[in-house]
Every structure is written in structure tokens, then in C-alpha cells.
Amino acid sequence: MRCCCIGTESVSLKKVLKRVCKDVECSFGTSVKIKGCTADPDEVRPGDAFFALPDEQPDSDDLINEAVNLAVHHGCSAICCPPSVARRFLPDVPVFVVPNVAEAYAAVCQALCDEPARSLKMIAVTGTSGKTSTSYLISGVLAESGLQVGLIGSLGIFDGDRLHPLTETDLLPHQLAYRLNQMVLNGCTHAIVEVSSKMIAEGVLGGIGFDAVCITNIRRDHLDYHKTVEQYRRSKLSIFRYAKKHALAVCNIDDRITEAVVPLINQPMLSVGIRNQAEVGSVLVERCPSEQTFIVTAGTEAVPFRTKMIGDDHMYNCLTAAALGIGLEIDIKTVARGIERVESVPGRMERIECGQDFNVYIDSARTADSLAAVLKTVREITQGRMICVFGAAVYHEPAKRSALAKTLETFSDSVILTSVSDRTDTKSAAAICDIGHGFSAKESVKIMPDRAEAIAWGLSEAKTGDSVLIFGHGTPEETMMTGGYVPFCDRLFTKQWLYENQSVPA
Fold first, then answer.
1. Are residues 364 and 457 in the same domain?
2. Do both 72 and 132 map to the same domain?
3. Are residues 383 and 327 in the same domain?
4. Range of the structural domain that residue 271 is part of
5. What is the pLDDT of residues 34-69, one digit of tens each?
6. Is residue 166 domain-shared with residue 39, that is, in the same domain?
7. pLDDT tens-digit profile of 143-200?
8. Same-domain pairing of 362 and 466
9. Overall pTM > 0.70
10. C-alpha–C-alpha distance, residues 328 and 489, integer Å
11. Sheet holding 37-38: strands in order across?
């Protein structure tokens, strides 16, 4: 896909590469200036720079060599490639050899879009869970203090003017550069970027310097991509390669892994915590189905926060946002107002209220740890039974499906296993069966592959004082389909069912 360039000014390829790469080897014609770049040889236009990105296939170098020849045939003005490839060919265009082609590509995309990150205060939010909610809360804090904020996250992109849906969770380098530039053009002063481990590992952040980095927690996830827990955690911590020298770090020291690596973080830091002594801490005062109140302490100040979202995880997210605000010298009372203005985040302990006499929450928990945190919270405020509708999917690792079953069985009175999509394929069906087999009491679990049917059944079983939890993607408009091409959304379906089947007091 082509880099979406802003403006007509060309950039010096060597100059940009020198900024992000310690070692850049050049062939002839090193004064090359470009107005476009791409990593797809089929998209090369005359004058573009082509970036030969390596992959993990056994014949990777051969494939790259073919791609380079195609790019040259299409008229590229320069090639950027890794050393292993450069030794195998000598095209009739300038060749720039760099150790990390992906990071170099991202940096050139930023340069072609007028270096938007340099005009913004850049805030990165990363971690295994809590990234989306924390990003929303930080946005609320900054907006409350009168700042114009852009946000890039898993629920979409707000560019200072409009909210754009995301078709893919992780942006490609040219997409990230383009969106940041739109924020600058729309008058944003700050940009919050929800950063996944994959974005870090693939060098998508090249050319960006963050002014603040927030780490919500570091557990385990995406092992299908990173292969090992160690590689996943190392990728998360690599976020600081993209932090400015005096960038603020905000870390949750109640998280075991994060606490262990704090001594390795060479940045000004604010710690947050509930159990351990932290620079920004909190104490729970009261929690009920529709809200919670807790006291946030920072130095000599103590301020009450009241949030519509509940749970310890949400308290941690609020503390991270509060610490970031305090680190940016925003008054703590303004911080509290900014956090309280975020009454809900789609699919994150999202309470559905349609006049029913039982609790309904929609959540996107996908790991045993995050699932347990939600279930514990709801169990605390539930007087009756807990009914869980859980969407099993391919992304639930086979080795971890038994842990999911144990967690669901431990905290729930009744579980309905279903799909995250009404188009259940073979792999999703296998995930449902694997989790179902993990239950010791088979009578407590029911398998209903049709998601709409499963949600309706769970809601119909609820009585006064019960709680129904619906787990799935948790996105605003889920791309699941039912009965052909009719969009299906947990939220809309649940509300419609409740209004049609519950008697609402006048």
C-alpha cells in the first residue's frame, strides 16, 4: 500500500535514514530525494523509494530479491533493504542498507507527512489489558484541561474533527503518519496512541518520539505472534526505544512484571498502585452495580473520584490517567473531572441499563486473568446468580482454554458458550468445544453456537438481583453477521431484547 504523502515537498532519503539508523550503508547516488515510498512492489510509481521488508518465510531473501527486481522495473528511485539482501543483487538504482528496514520505512512515512509527531505532544499507552480504557480516560483529562486531543486506539481514530472506524487493530506506518498529520491539520495539541506489542515489534513507531509512556500491566498475550512470553514482554518494554530522553513513564507497580522491570526504565517515572506504596494511589470507598467511589492520593493531596464504570481494573486505569495528568502539571481536581466525564467505554465493563431489575454488562475480556478480574468485580455486587455468555474464538489459545473454563466455572452459576461471530467456522467450533470440555460440572455449561440465541437465552434466565455478563469483541459495531448480511452488535441486540421483553416502570 502506498504511503499517503501530505504536501509536495520532497525529502532526502539519506537524511531521514540517518536520524533513525546508526548504520546506513549507501551505494551510488546518495543524494536521492523522494516524494513517495512503499513496501509493496506492485504499488511502486516512478520516483518512489521501495522498502524491502523481510519476513519469516524460509525463502525470504529470494522473495525480497524478486520484489526488488519488480520495484526497479516499475521505476523506483531507491531501494532500502537489509544487509542479507543487499549482498545478493546490484540494481541500477541507489541502495540504502539499514539494520531495521521496517523502522526506516516508518520514519520515512513520517517525514513524507511533514513529521506530524514533532508538532504534537505524543502519549503512548501500552500493556496487556486496559489500554483502550486508559486512553479514553487520558483523553478526558486532557480535554477537561482545555487541550485539543487526537486518539488512535482499537475502537477507532479521533483526528480532532471526526471519529473514524478501524478495519484493522494495528495501523500500518503510512496510515499512522497520515492520521497524525490530520490531527495537526485539525488543530490537535496532543495525540494518544494505543500501542500494541505487534506495532512495537514491527517498527511501526519509527520516526516518532513519545513525550510520555504509560504501561498498564505486562502479562502474557499474542503468543501466536511472539512465540514466547519472554519475547512478548521484551517487545512491550521496547516501547522506550521510542521515548524522548526526558519522557515521563507511568507504571503500575502492583503488576508483578512491571514492578520487576521498573529499575530498568531510565526515564522520569510516576508509579501507581492500590496494594503497594505508590506515588499515585487510591483507596476504595464504595462500589455498587452502577458506580464506585475511591480516594486518589498524590503527595499531600487526596481527592474523591466517582466513576460510572466499576472494578479494580478501572481504578488502575484511572490512576494511570491521573498520574499522567499530574505529570503534565494538570491540577488534580481537573484530573478528577476529566476522568469522571468518561462515563463508559464501549465493551469495557459497559453497563446496559434499560429499566431491568438485574445487572447486564458487556465486556471484551479474552484472557483468564482479565476474565477473572471482571467476574470477581461483578460477583461482589451481585445478590443473586451470575450468568455468563462467553464467546469462544480462535484467538483463545488452545493451551489456555482449560484456564478460561476453570475461571468461568469458579465465578459463574450458569455459562452459555457461544461464538464471537454468528458465522461459526470449524476453528471457532473447536474453541467452543475445548472450553466446554474444561468444565467439571457439565450441567453448569450450555453450548449455543448462535450468538443472538445465546444472549437472548442468558437474558431470559435472569431474575431480580442477578447479573448477566456478555463477553465478546466489545467493539462499538461488531462485524458479526446473522442471517446473511445484517450487521449484529451485542449492545444493540441486548438493548432491543430488554426493551421488548422487560416491563419498564412508568
1. yes
2. no
3. no
4. 116-340
5. 989 999 999 999 989 999 987 655 456 677 788 888
6. no
7. 999 999 999 998 999 999 999 987 666 789 999 999 999 999 999 999 999 998 889 9
8. yes
9. yes
10. 38
11. 25-26, 95-97, 78-81, 49-51, 37-38
Judge whether 111 and 84 are in contact, CB under 8 Å: no
Q: 448 and 377: one domain?
A: yes
Cβ–Cβ < 8 Å for 428, 392: yes
Does residue 345 belong to any structural domain of this protein?
no
pLDDT confidence of 424, banded at 50, 70, 90?
low
CATH number, position 220: 3.40.1190.10
Q: Which three cell numbers, joined as nine digits, stand for 442?
A: 457439565
SS3 of residue 205 by DSSP: coil
Is 82 within 8 Å of 65 (Cβ atoms)?
Answer: no
CA dist 368 and 375 (Å) reads 10
Mean pLDDT, residues 468-493 taken together: 65
Residue 347: name the closest of 366, 367, 362 by CA.
Answer: 362
Indicate the residue among 59, 77, 112 that finishes a domain. 112
| Residues, the chain | 506
152 contacts 179 by C-beta, under 8 angstroms: yes
Place of cell 499512522: 176
Nearest partner of 251 among 282, 227, 279, 229, judged by Cα: 279
Are 496 and 488 a contacting pair, CB within 8 Å? no
**CA pair distance 406, 417, nearest whole angstrom:** 13
CATH code, domain carrying 410:
3.90.190.20
Contact 181, 113 (CB under 8 A): yes
| Same domain, yes or no: 54 and 170 | no
For 436, 448, 453, 462, the CA distances from 458, given in Å and listed in that order, are: 17, 11, 9, 7
Q: What is the pLDDT of residues 279-298, one digit of tens each?
A: 999 999 999 999 999 999 99
Does the residue 85 lie in any domain?
yes
Question: Domain boundary residue among 112, 144, 163?
Answer: 112
Burial 445-466 (b: 16+ CB within 10 A, else e): bbebbebbebbbbbbebbeeeb
Tell me the chain's radius of gyration from C-alpha atoms. 25
**Over 80: is that where the pLDDT of 228 sits?**
no
Q: Are both 325 and 212 inside the same structural domain?
A: yes
- Whether 6 is in a domain gets the answer no
